[in-house]
Amino acid sequence: MSERQQARRPGGRSARVGAEVHQAVTDLISERGYGNFTVGEVAARAGVADSSIYRRWGSLEALLTDVALTRLNAQSPMPDTGSLAGDLRTYAANVAREITGPDGLAVVRLAVALSGTGQQGLQAGADLRAERMRQLQSMLDRARERGEHAPDAFGVLDHVLAPMYIRVLFGMGPLTPDYVDGLVDRLL
Amino acid sequence: MSERQQARRPGGRSARVGAEVHQAVTDLISERGYGNFTVGEVAARAGVADSSIYRRWGSLEALLTDVALTRLNAQSPMPDTGSLAGDLRTYAANVAREITGPDGLAVVRLAVALSGTGQQGLQAGADLRAERMRQLQSMLDRARERGEHAPDAFGVLDHVLAPMYIRVLFGMGPLTPDYVDGLVDRLL
């Protein structure tokens, strides 16, 4: 069995190594900020050989992209509560929890950094944001189909997500439930 | 005359070196992203010795902080047009021009990165933001004194500045005059 086939096998050693390498990246971003560590340092922290990382991801940039995509896609699935206000409040609360959690700032900073790290990061960041905007738009479309008056996804981005991201990035937290609900209520 | 006294003398060689080093930092952030270059690379690009940078700024982090503070303070002074709508539209247009200009993304990314680079950057970033919020609040206070109904500075941050920053950071520009005016009108 080739190395590549092993890497694709779900579960087992490959999955454990993947999880450990991802956690090492998240920890290093938290401690040092984006860009201030090498593949060798990720490998040492994860307890794997440098060559394992290069074989599986190819470069530090590709690894960082993979971490950001995995984290941001795995978290905050789109809610379906039956009302637009319920959906948006739940969604906003999920995002707030995700970006103020222990790894939250690291993940937000990584998502931001992806827009400025060469073509691969740029494309990955654009794909990630386009996918999230599509999911968000589906949630808003469901509300419209129920006869509710709904903003578009860019309105949610500008007036619910952007304020939360900027307050986290600028260290102006915490995002209290009242603050987050207020952003949603103001938009609706 | 000691090196330190020379560095403090306004104009002349010291000012030219300062400007060249600042431009080198801005260029390197634009090309490679924050964190992906060394003091040696800044020095080579600016045409000065590494030791000149260490003597004047002490560290790469202190240099980056100085660049961000200088750029963000020099740009977009607070307008005083006589009406709140005029002030906010002018202010928002200035910020939009600043962050979508040739070095804009680099400066925004640097401001964001400062919140995650050790104590010195953290404090510098916090000082910078506090000073801008004070300037903004003064503009809003003038409107209140004229009898206008004004939002607070956090409302401007959340609903005018944050959407523009996030759209630039996520590469979702351009910020058209209609879009920027729309953010202000919506807030008022």
Proportion of β residues of chain A? under 5%
Mean pLDDT of chain A: 82
Query: Any idea how many domains of chain A?
Result: 2
Architecture per CATH nomenclature, i.e. the level-2 architecture of the largest domain in chain A = Orthogonal Bundle
Main interface: chain pair and counts: A-B, 30 and 30 residues
CATH overall fold name of the largest domain in chain A: Tetracycline Repressor, domain 2
Indicate the structural class of chain A.
mainly alpha
- Class of the largest domain in chain A, according to the CATH hierarchy? Mainly Alpha
N-to-C span of chain A: 55 Å
Short description:
The structure is a homodimer of 188-residue chains. Chain A is an all-alpha fold. Chain A has ten helices and no strands.
Describe this structure in words.
The structure is a homodimer of 188-residue chains. Chain A is mainly alpha-helical and 188 residues long. Chain A folds into two domains: 3-58, Orthogonal Bundle (Arc Repressor Mutant, subunit A); 76-187, Tetracycline Repressor, domain 2. Chain A has ten helices and no strands. Chain A has helices at 3-8, 12-32, 39-46, 50-57, 60-74, 84-100, 104-114, 118-145, 153-169, 177-187. In chain A, helix 5 packs across helix 7, helix 5 packs parallel to helix 8 (118-145) and helix 6 crosses helix 10 (177-187). The radius of gyration of chain A is 18 Å and the shape is elongated. Chain A starts with a helix and ends with a helix. Residues 1-9 of chain A have low confidence and may be disordered. The interface between A and B is medium-sized, with 30 and 30 residues. Chains A, B: Residues 15-75 form the HTH tetR-type domain. Chains A, B: It holds the Pfam family TetR_C_11. Chains A, B: Keywords: DNA-binding, Transcription, Transcription regulation. Chains A, B: Residues 38-57 bind DNA. Chains A, B: This is TetR/AcrR family transcriptional regulator.
